[in-house]
């Protein structure tokens, strides 16, 4: 388990909900030019990459899946990822292009990837899998066919009830079938958001922030539920501060012009509840929001077995700070 | 790789293709590679005309994988809104224009076993890149292309040379006039997808014919030049969630009125063909002028495509 140590780089999820507590909504917003580059190297970069690669080694089929017709799409992804990384962090990443002969250098890890761009036989992993292992994000390619999006390539290591193995080939509506996706005024959101995603054009990416709570885990998928399912029961109002983490997913939606797909990028960050004291305003807003989570949402997000303990922990923490 | 905003382009070359069609070659001012695109894609172009900016969509006709430049082919149409006339009469080699990234609302059907294209006039443009893609992938297709005469048929020589045996031409004003008809769709194998591009009347006729022949809706694809006409009445629009009332004049579309009032209404093609400007209707009757929604869909839910449809009476109440 890792946690965010540079809180200036932690995307606190509830800032927009000061007066209103959290409910599902179509909350995708347009990005300013300065926010488009989703590369973010935090103090936890090396720990995250190490764990991501371990998960990919341990369960390769669960963590990475693709369809054979996606190779050209994968190369478009490789080019995007390298360009964004080199553009934002030229001190950490560099690329040498000699015609189609490319050498990507990761100076943080002291690694080089040499390959012939567009020729997957020049590398041992698939292109998407190869470059994805240098960055801590999860990457999903949702390809637009007819009027829906289908998951055709995915690499993932911070699952929240999702896996490439389970979800490959599913449409946006199928993937979101289990989500109790209803807005404050009772509107069913899945299909509305599918339509909204269709309006995302190349050159105009969008973003949103999703959140969850996790009990001593950074990753829950259907394939390992026998392990993490029972663990959720060990949370008490006393140990919740240490065990329960506020999990934040900063998400980007980038329409890829050649693939006609939406690249869905997730940057997942964790903060144990006890660290909320470092930002007292976050502590109160978090308590306020968690105390108001409806049962159906707690159930779907998988936090139902430890939500009451977490809320009680936060309440006690706030009270103890007031006494001082 | 570019990810954001619009692209500044220099007009590098202009070719006269037929008497009324010009092809414009656009090169990125920063000389960096452009995004590759998919067959059927278009760009939105922004050209300054005095203090106004003309915003027009044109299909790309350059090779989808050629990232050094884009090109578009424009038919000079004096009866249109003035974009094509401006491009023809005022845009010169060396000028700077802005374009969007390539967008595609007219994609090839992924599951098609065979692709059949029907083009009327300048409606040929999106099919050029679709055919390039299919040829590269080794897939089968055929083109039916109607023009007035051989001389006015843009890309006639190119098509004949590149795709021999796959193109059928119909010249309505030649010595022996031949009309293109939807009937040829009846002879296609199951699994064929059909594609139409041309004026509203042509697309409507072919779409209805295809459905009546039993083509599944997902096998029928189309793109329009412009929205259907009709009397443009003035009306009022109330937006419930922002508590505003806006007047829509006869000269404006509902979408234009919304945008002018600073409301972030969604849109894309502005021709009633892509469905992206759909907005929920709370009250009031809609005069539907799009061909995007089926009658069935219109019955099921209350919505309007703001780029072309209007109020039947004095007022509409919308939720945006």
Describe what is shown at a glance.
Chain A: This is DUF3445 domain-containing protein. Chain A: It comes from Pseudobacillus wudalianchiensis. The complex is a heterodimer of chains A (324) and B (320). With 324 residues, chain A is of the alpha+beta class.
Key phrases:
heterodimer, A: 324 residues, alpha+beta, 7-stranded antiparallel beta sheet, 3-stranded antiparallel beta sheet, 10 strands, 23% strand, globular, B: 320 residues, alpha/beta, Elongation Factor Tu (Ef-tu), domain 3, Rossmann fold, Ubiquitin-like (UB roll), 6-stranded antiparallel beta sheet, 5-stranded parallel beta sheet, 6 helices, 32% strand
Could you describe the 3D structure shown?
The complex is a heterodimer of chains A (about 325) and B (about 325). Helix content of chain A is about 30%, strand content about 25%. Chain A has about 325 residues and is of the alpha+beta class. Chain A starts with about 30 loop residues before the first strand and ends with a helix. Chain B has three domains: about 5-100, Translation factors (Elongation Factor Tu (Ef-tu), domain 3, Beta Barrel); about 115-225, Rossmann fold (3-Layer(aba) Sandwich), CATH 3.40.50.80; about 235-320, Ubiquitin-like (UB roll), CATH 3.10.20. Chain B has six helices and 18 strands. The mean pLDDT of chain B is about 90. The interface of A and B includes residues 202, 257 and 259 of A.
